[in-house]
Amino acid sequence: MARIIDLKLPKALAAALRIPQNDPRRQQLRVLKKLLRKARFTEFGQQYRFDDILHSKLPDRQFQANVPVHDYNSIYEQWWKKTLEGVPDVTWPGKIKYYALSSGTSDAASKYIPVTKEMLRSNRVNYLRQWLSLMSYEHLPRNSVTKGFLMMSGATDLQKGAAGWYAGDLSGILAKNKPFWFQTFYKPGGRIAKIKDWNEKLHEIVEHAKEWDIGYIVGVPAWCQMCMEMIVEHYKVKTIHDIWPNLGFFVHGGVAFEPYKKGFEKLLAKPIVYIENYLSSEGFIGFKAREHAQGMQLILDNNIFMEFVPFDENNFDADGKMVENPKAYMIHEVEEGREYALLMSTNAGAWRYLIGDTLRFVNKEKAEVVITGRTKHFLSLVGEHLSVENMNRAIQLVSEELNISIPEYGVVGFPYEGLFAHKWYVACNDDVPEELLAQKIDGYLCQLNDDYAVERGSALKAVLLQRLPEEAFLKFMEKEGKLGSQHKFPRVLKGKMLQEWNQFLAEIGKK
Q1: Would you say which domain of life the source belongs to (predicted)?
Q2: Which helix (H) or strand (E) holds 126?
Q3: What contacts 246, CB < 8 A, 6 or more positions away?
Q4: Distance between CA atoms of residues 119 and 303, nearest Å
Q5: Of all helices (H) and strands (E), which one includes residue 84?
Q6: Which residues of the chain are modeled with pLDDT < 70?
Q7: Which residue, 218, 238, 271, sits at the end of a domain?
Q8: Residue 381 included in any domain
Q9: Residue 190, in any domain of the structure
């Protein structure tokens, strides 16, 4: 990672003290102390004695002892709700000007995630770091580097609250607060970016696409792919490179890219560079910093303090709910290959906050991780321990083997003939038999997951599949008010979302 603002010890001194210059624990301790000093006079900082933590010999351990873990509901009800009423200095100094609206993929009600000016500044620094990291790539499409950025973001026309704050998709907030020097490169421009209706915005982008010289596309894969498909169809060309010959980069995040890759490749005339970042409503967590890296590198030195809770039965119940006092590890204590849930403390006033993602370290030395799923989005009816990572990989392998595109899918587990079954709903416009898809997905999952393979021979009796047109998934998301930008179709269907999905299928005659 390009280290722009690191505080580094002289090499000789670092060697004499036997301290690595970029020791992860030292970086994270500096971040924690900075956050504690900044927030010590807030209501939260006073209640949990941030001054005492700062004066302790082991501030990270004292921080864990003093401050409880939070999920969204607990921190919102006790703390963040006050900030919506205009109360300052609650969990972070000053008033909150922006809130990122996040419904997640399981709850219908919007979540209001605070976004501070300090967080926006941190995000800008990290975007610049990510861009600089590209310069080390061996296969860099140099003609694309200085071309336009098409950002498929939410509307920059934000809703205004009674206390003077503004709320909307994080991508819309970031686009509204883009630095002045970025104006030259930014597309689709201010007028189109304000449009709230996603279909209208897409059609405006298509109409103006030929006027732009795009080098980068930035956004969630599903919506970016849809936009490119619409452009190709509108201009009656073979590939997107017929319109944007200098397109060389796709910057994505939010969901795993594997299910979309085959569909993307069909729209391209030449290879492009895929760059994954780990940007959530709560902060910019990491990005792919090396060309051939297996995972994304966590950003350890820019205002996010991270803790890692082993994702196991000791810390989470069968529904993925975290216990009251989980065992949390620091960055220097994690193990490669083990699955963790991420807790974050940030310069937007989140403290020991469960973001809901599960991670696995693939390179501890470089702090590189892959996202394996969500704490509440996994299937383990009978001990099959099926993660979203397994599902994404199986979909990718099936897509490659059959040369088809499966841009969306969802899975549900349920009792079946005295035992249990999984049912897959897949978006696929290619003509392929449902039985073949189910067989192929099931076969790859048996190869990828030993627990799944064992249970397929016993309690997990059947794998069923229903193929639907891609349009059905989009119509459902539109019906849910989640069309566009950062909204994703849930990979595991449970609870209220499953009920609404079944009702939707009945309405369109697909049940």
Answers
A1: Bacteria
A2: helix 117-133
A3: 141, 143, 144, 147, 213, 214, 215
A4: 8
A5: helix 81-84
A6: 1-21, 103-109, 254, 482-487, 511
A7: 271
A8: no
A9: yes
